[in-house]
Amino acid sequence: MSGEKLSSLERANRWLQRLAESLTRPTAPFLGEALYAGVDLGTADVVMVVLDRDGLPVIGRLRWTGVVREGLVFDFAGAVQVVRELKAEIESLLHRPLEFAATGIPPGITGRDALVPHYVLEEAGLQVTGIVDEPTAAALALGLTEGAVVDIGGGTTGISVLEGGRVVYTADEPTGGRHLTLVLEGRYGLNFEEAERLKRERGMTPEIQDTLRPVLEKMASIVQRHLRGRTVRTLYLAGGTCDFPGIESVMEEIVGIPVVKPTHPLLVTPLGLALSCYQTLQVTANPPNH
Q1: 269, 182 in Cβ contact below 8 A?
Q2: pLDDT tens for residues 30-79?
Q3: pLDDT of residue 172
Q4: Beta carbons of 151 and 18 less than 8 angstroms apart
Q5: Which residues lie closer than 8 Å to 83 by C-beta, 6 or more apart?
Q6: In terms of domains, do 270 and 258 share one?
Q7: Of 153, 123, 126, 114, which is closest to residue 269 (Cα–Cα)?
Q8: Is residue 2 part of a domain?
Q9: How far, in Å, CA of 47 to CA of 44, rounded?
Q10: Is 263 helix (H, G, I), strand (E, B) or coil?
Q11: Do 113 and 150 belong to one domain?
């Protein structure tokens, strides 16, 4: 509403809801000028989010895929193809070219591995404005200056601690949604695709939740270990695995601090990446006066 004062989290939840609705509804041609994208190359999903010239969400698109494992692109050609297809789909819907994008990596990825997402986007026809570690991108989307962000994707659990608007600690460990699926695969004698479908469709049932609780507890224990000795008053969740019902309760029980689960956690990090792209190009277009 006009004149309504919203907190950063409330504003982010509205943006995330808008993006979630755009995933499944037709989008009208875009009449503005500039577009800014964020591309999250996840283990289970590749997500692209686009903002307008005011930094507001326009559209989101995703593709379930398997081009990344534990935070690393292992199928370069496949990743390029997915990003190229998402780019073309969005351009067709908006009737505008998509030129600029930022992308992300899990904390701790360094050297050549850290540059691969840049090369993927470049090969797909995008100019890359930056590479951001994923929990830091999530913090940007949520407008956080204090607390800890836990970004649990398909392959990794990433953690960023913020103090006074600065990231003071990051960590990443190879445990994520794929491990939940593997547990169901073994428990019920399914193939991976069948187990993934079971997780997505029946995650609310007590039987599935009981089966997967030990893995959720392991994720929470990872977070607890990395936050030990740090003053963190609130934990914020992001990443597709945090869509799993009840994960916030397990995390709060084991870590021992309040946990906030935003609307549509899968879209938090790509929204932050798009905001990073937007902010980078705004600074470039309007350099500070000295």
Answers
A1: no
A2: 666 789 999 999 888 899 999 998 898 999 999 988 888 767 888 899 99
A3: 87
A4: no
A5: 39, 41, 46, 48, 120, 121, 124, 126
A6: no
A7: 153
A8: no
A9: 10
A10: coil
A11: no
